[in-house]
Amino acid sequence: MAVFESYRANLEVADLAPTVDFLRDVLGFAVEVHEPAMGLALLRRDGVGVGVVRTPNPAVNETTAGYVGVSDVDALYAHCLRHGGEITTELTEHPWGLRDFVLRIPGGHRLAFGQRIAPAS
């Protein structure tokens, strides 16, 4: 069976700069590719990638654009609050063993960040 080795959310936006700046400056993503003329930026942090694509009619999911597993969700939540992150769903502990929150980023997209706190049932 094939091993899935990475995940990259692709986010459509009207303007690359605010989203790229937020992902880099607040969430610590490194910019791997930034081609404003082509309307594309690719960013990575640890094993997670994010593609930011300029489009004339950007679409934003009604829920979240992706779910990122992290090792210390409480620390990331506090970091986002300190840096003015717009939390749309507060840090929540779910009965299925996850603790997570949802953050709105420039461009309107929402990313969920969570940590497993109990074994999956």
TrEMBL record:
Q: Span of the secretion signal?
A: none
Record field: transmembrane: none
Domain (VOC) spans 3-116
| Top-level taxon in the UniProt lineage | Bacteria
Query: Mind telling me what this protein is named?
Result: VOC family protein
Question: What organism does this protein naturally occur in?
Answer: Nocardia tengchongensis
